[in-house]
Amino acid sequence: MAEIDLSPAQDKGVLKEIIKEGVGDETPTTGCKVKVHYIGTLLDGTKFDSSRDKDKPFKFNLGTGNVIKAWDIGVASMKKGEIAILTCAPEYAYGKNGSPPLIPSDATLKFEVELLDWSGEDLSPNKDKSIERFQIIVGESYANPEDGSIVKIHLVGKYNGEVFEDRDVEFTLGEGEIVGVVDGVEIALQRFLKGEKSRLFIKSKYAFKSQGKPEYNIPPNADIEYEVKLQDFEKETSVWSMKPAEKIEQAKMQKEKGTKYLKSDRINVAIKVYQKVSKYLNEGSDFTDDLKKERDSLLVAAHLNLALCYLKTNENILAKQECDQVLELDPKNEKALFRRGQAHLGLASPELAINDFQEVLKLQPNNTAASNQVLICNSFIKKQLTKEKKLYANMFDKFAQEDKQKEEQKLKEQPDVMRGTLGEWGQEERPGGRDATAFEKENPNILMLNANGSGEFKNM
To answer: Where does each TPR repeat begin and end (predicted)?
Structure first.
């Protein structure tokens, strides 16, 4: 086939000649991990590199500057299975510097490239391909929205090829659950640029999870697809640029919003919002006098409410940590002591829990809830002791049985002097090689007969 000029400036910097057509209509997009085989030669045919000679395909992230410009441009135009010759001008390859000793300065290069396969850009937090992005339209700026940004998006959701939602939505990033935006879309948006449009393949754990979405006919544990366009976004004001009073106001707003979500049982969103309170108030050096008191009061309230959220989600270690932070600010805070006691109970540590509940009772002797928790702790401890006693008794019984079996085995392994050949001497084994006496024949297991066979016992 005829060569095609792929260079953006149409300056013949990247020419492609297709040797073998690929399949389908799709081509890889920026960020995709592509897998290729290649053979690189100079214009005179000198080969300088080959993945085929190494018998190992080459993988790289497309469009991210991992390879020469000609490859980012050329491979992005290829279909799966396609083989093409890319002719790359120096400014799209190694330029004036070359790549000594194999590639000289200002060298035009030829690459035979076969596109074997590709996968989407992995945006998942654990890099397990649970959120994959395939860009359709590249964004136009260099800034990304972040947690707390107000985003305007258009999204189209699909399951098994069927559209289940198609809408515009505006929300605060991190609070998408409130408007029905799944976690996978929120996570991906933090890597979007303004104007970007991408396809997202999202595994169930970042979609509708084990609950599914019955109103959309989406079953539990279903993987879904979204086409998302980031129309616009507005970032939060940077904390470092705020005055202390502004930080206090922002923290108040987040605390009130978190409480609203907590009361409506939106626990996961409440956690995200309460965490922002600390973001505004963590740097305490510029808070003085009344502002410092207000700051400490807001931090105490946020940590207490976070502890409550974590108790509700059974994340007891995190709940305990939040209570610890409260007690650093207010060592006699009854709620912090009580909730830390609950966290200790959740972690099966009743001895630690009872100490916290007893501290509450020292501060509030008539606290019925704490008194009841002390009873629960004592019952828990009693059950643990009974269980341990039974466990140890069973262990000792087991050890005793094992010792008995070992002793019986040792006895079995000892020779039986009343049976077998022990003491049944042959002719050559008797003193003097004599024949057995009548007594020895009648008593073959008697060993200590004297040498002359007189029938007298020796050394008895």
So the answer is: 300-333, 334-367
- Catalytic annotation present for 94: yes
Q: What is the reported pTM?
A: 0.72
User: Which residue, chain included where needed, has tokens 């007690």?
Assistant: 327
> Is residue 49 annotated as part of the catalytic site, yes or no?
yes
In this predicted model, what pLDDT tens digit does every residue of 80-136 receive, in sequence order? Answer: 999 999 999 999 999 999 999 999 999 999 999 999 999 999 999 999 999 999 999
* Of 48, 58, 60, 216, catalytic: 48
What tens digit of pLDDT does each residue of 157-207 get?
Answer: 999 999 999 999 999 999 999 999 999 999 999 999 999 999 999 999 999
What DSSP assignment string belongs to 45-95?
Answer: S-EEEEHHHHT--EEEETTTTSS-HHHHHHHTTPPBT-EEEEEE-GGGTTG
Active site residue 111: yes
Q: Which of 5, 49, 147, 296 is catalytic?
A: 49
Q: How far is CA 108 from CA 13, 36, 114, 282, in A?
A: 9, 21, 20, 57
E strand spans, 173-297: 197-202, 224-234
Question: Is 290 annotated as catalytic?
Answer: no
